[in-house]
Amino acid sequence: MHIAKEEATSIPGKSFSQKARTCLANITVEPLIVLYLFPSVLLAMSAANLHLEKACRVKLQLNETVCDALTARNASAYTSEQENLVQKVVTAMNAWKSIIQSVIPACLLLLFGAWSDKHNRRKPLMALPIIGEFITVTGFIFCTYFFYELSMEFTGLVETVPNAFTGSWFTMFMAVMSLIGCTSSLESRTVKIGAVNILMNTCIMLGLGLSGALYHVIGSYAIYCFALSMYTIGLIYLKIRIKEAKTEASGDEGLKSDRSGTFKDFFNVLHIKDTIMVAFRQRKRNDRKRLFVILTLTILVLGPMYGKCSCKL
Question: Transmembrane segments in this chain: where (predicted)?
Answer without folding.
Answer: 23-45, 95-115, 127-148, 168-186, 198-215, 221-238, 291-307
